Amino acid sequence: MDHDKFVATFRSHLQDISKYLTRRVEVSYVEDLASEIFEIAWRKRESCPEGFELAWLYKIAGFTVSNHRKKISRRGILLPLLDQDLAAPSAEDVALDGSAVAIAFGLLAAKDRQILSLLVFEELSVKEISVVLGATENSTSQRLKRARERLAKYLEQQVSETNEGGH
Amino acid sequence: MTKHFEDDELLNSLGRAAGKQEAPDLNETIIHSAVTADLKFGQRKLATPRLLVSLVGGAAVLAVTAILVSSHAPRIIELSNLEGKSGIEFLSSADGRANSMPTGDTNMDIFIPNIKATQSGLSAEAGKGFVYRATNTQDPEVLLNKLASYFGVQGSSVQRDGYKAVLGDKHATRWSAYVSTEGSLRFTYLNASDESKTPKVEISKDGALKVFTDFGLQVTLDDIHLGFNRAVAYVKVENQESPVRWILVWGPDKRIYSFEGYAIEFHPFLEVRTISPSQAFNRLNILSWGEGQVVVLHEDRVDPISPRNLIESCRPFDSEACEVKVTSSETSLGYIQDANEQLWLVPSHSYYVGGVLAGGTSALPEGNIESATISKFPNN
Known about the structure:
CATH topology of the largest domain in chain A: Rna Polymerase Sigma Factor, Chain: A
Number of domains of chain B: 2
Helix content of chain A: 55-70%
Largest interface: A-B, 100 and 99 residues
Strand order of the largest sheet of chain B: 4-5-6-7-11-10-9-8
Structural class of chain A: mainly alpha
Oligomer: heterodimer
Strand content of chain B: 25-35%
CATH class of the largest domain in chain A: Mainly Alpha
Number of strands of chain B: 17
Number of strands of chain A: 0
Largest sheet of chain B: 8 strands, antiparallel
Shape of chain A: globular
Radius of gyration of chain B: 23 Å
Largest sheet of chain A: none
Order of helices and strands of chain A: HHHHHHHH
Number of domains of chain A: 2
Number of helices of chain A: 8
Helix content of chain B: 10-25%
């Protein structure tokens, strides 16, 4: 992929990357991180799967966000096990409203937030998500199913608690 | 772009719950610059890698999962054993919540699939160490009342297995306070509102210190790690920082957006045999640096090189394996949460590459964590 084709291919994804980053980091970091993402993309362009360019960019973006969060934490080495997937957006990051489903999303483990975000907020297909995660489609489908079930479970709890509070 | 969950009302409702955030318009020059930057980058001689990789877990070997390392060197007294066969159950992903065990199938590993860790000069000497058990410093009920009062959460109280909560808005649950029976506490303020009584706190170490100490965390100003909009402090073990953290996050209006921590303290629980750094090191590769979560880290205080340099220096996308050599280690403590959400610290080894912390493993003999039931250990 030469320079022109690279630009032509990825130009249309600039705003997608901006939105992805805005959901996960302070806005002031978005441009710098986007630059980093496209620099990595250029260097690794030969490994970009044709037809899945955006998913591949999200894969790089997830990695970049993870590193960024560790970098600003000053104690990144200690974070990964507390924040299991540092590329996952928190409920605060995605500026969810205060509804019960938003609370339920916030209660999910990071890996569940991550995979649901790719589906709901990034609006990727299962195939595309599997590219982002480096997993098979079948595995991705199963993970999505489980994440959705857990979201439903927490939502049910929230609704139940809300109803109890109302009595 | 097409939604792929059109018929799923739950996911649609999640999508509707997301606010419309303004994402910056990025200029196309970013893409052009990426090419230029790479040309410059290729001409630059890479520094010796200062920051390498951290293996943070894997699902295959329970004994070394859920380990965080701190620089604390535990006191060594005498040998005891950890015999027991009842089977500690680490938090599994059964319910996907509060799972501290990375599963190894996240998106991290796919970026660095071929890193191989080797060791040189690590000690082969076994040793001894302490298992520390966390105990609550405050009654959960009292703590919850304090948390709710402090952050102005007024509303309905609920009780569930393992935790109690006060929900600030019984209809929309916009802000809430939770305390678990194991001492974890959490305040969340999901939606800024004038009606909130959440206090405004100065974004400073002093401001954070007051909040932390108000909730009983014994730290000083020097123990506060202040970031752009957050402050972190760590529960101490014998005057050293453990990996268990408290975190306070400010919103743009300087109100506290979220606050969480553990109202706990660690006490020596049992003396144990430990395996040598050289032997425990093998666990890194047993888990496989490729199959576990391998993360390239950046260490500001050592050398402000960018993660990109590290990635490039290790060439993780190349087909051939990248070898990193661990050359030193030190005794440390790892953090484990068992099936009952009881927190423990166990002897661990931290590994260094070029003087930079690169990862850690449990130092407990094989099978001890996996097969022993810590809750059945004799009390001190």
